[in-house]
Backbone:
């Protein structure tokens, strides 16, 4: 019915966090010394980049799921936008779906992203260790 | 079918992104992450369908058409992002020429 609203809420929050992180990193780069540790939290890949992966997954998923909901007639371009809102009996199941299905989507995408960051950090550390060994 | 088509699009775009990496002038990483995000969300939706007694995959023609529409919409969104961000500075060069 409107399960994509939960990932949409997360996407908004993560986008704000990412913007703040980007500002912090730019300020740390200007300060120069000891910046790299703050920016990358010791891993090598900046946090803003990692958060960028999550925002792209979330916004992309939300956009494509919104198209699917329009296809099924669950979302319309006129108020109240969600067809379930027209019938008071449908509001409760819709909210339950946002909580259960949408909440699970949020947890799953975030978990996959978290594993992705761990793997990327490992690969980065391995490649930088190989590069330093070659020198 | 929509999930399968989106997953296939995600896999193909990831391979194309990796072939072109580390150069990322066409923002293919963004396109692949968009498809991966949607595919992961539909996977969860599929599990909830199973829990409600419905099949995990909808193999109807209508759902396959929806999958194609999803792929096209993803490509259009990626194209708009690409033109807006202009990573190859094509529009800037055009501005200087005129």
Residues:
């Amino acid at each position: 019915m409107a399960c994509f609203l939960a990932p949409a809420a997360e996407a908004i929050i993560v986008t704000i966090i990412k913007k703040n992180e980007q500002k912090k990193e730019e300020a740390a780069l200007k300060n120069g010394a000891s910046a790299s540790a703050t920016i990358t939290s010791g891993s090598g890949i900046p946090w803003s980049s990692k958060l960028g992966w999550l925002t792209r997954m979330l916004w992309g998923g939300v956009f494509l799921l919104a198209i699917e909901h329009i296809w099924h007639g669950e979302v319309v371009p006129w108020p109240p936008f969600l067809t379930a809102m027209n019938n008071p009996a449908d509001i409760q199941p819709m909210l339950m779906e946002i909580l259960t299905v949408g909440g699970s989507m949020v947890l799953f995408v975030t978990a996959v992203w978290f594993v992705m960051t761990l793997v990327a950090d490992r690969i980065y550390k391995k490649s930088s260790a190989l590069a330093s060994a070659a020198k | 079918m929509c999930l399968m088509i989106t997953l296939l699009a995600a896999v193909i775009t990831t391979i194309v992104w990796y072939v072109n990496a580390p150069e990322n002038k066409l923002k293919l990483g963004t396109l692949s992450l968009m498809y991966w995000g949607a595919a992961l969300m539909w996977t969860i939706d599929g599990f909830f369908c199973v829990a409600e007694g419905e099949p995990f995959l909808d193999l109807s023609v209508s759902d396959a058409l929806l999958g194609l529409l999803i792929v096209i919409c993803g490509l259009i969104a990626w194209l708009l992002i690409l033109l807006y961000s202009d990573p190859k500075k094509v529009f800037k060069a055009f501005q200087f020429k005129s």
